[in-house]
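User: Can you predict the 3D structure for this chain?
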Amino acid sequence: MAKSSQSTADKTLRVRLVKSLGGVQARHRLSVKALGLGKINDVRELKDSPQVRGLINTVYYLVRVED
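Assistant: Here is the predicted structure, written as structure tokens:
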């Protein structure tokens, strides 16, 4: 059982900003900043957690998730 909890803790997501933030709601800009993305084609490796998934779902039209 410890092995499965360890494997979920090690999962990461590669998130890439693929669209510009021009004309985007201020709340969505803050979500992109919280993901650690600033410029187009920035990529971050983030821990797979419900909080990160929620941020990604908020700005789904601006980012691409690469496994």
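The mean pLDDT is 91. Residues 2-66 form a domain with the Ribosomal Protein L30; Chain: A, fold (CATH 3.30.1390.20).
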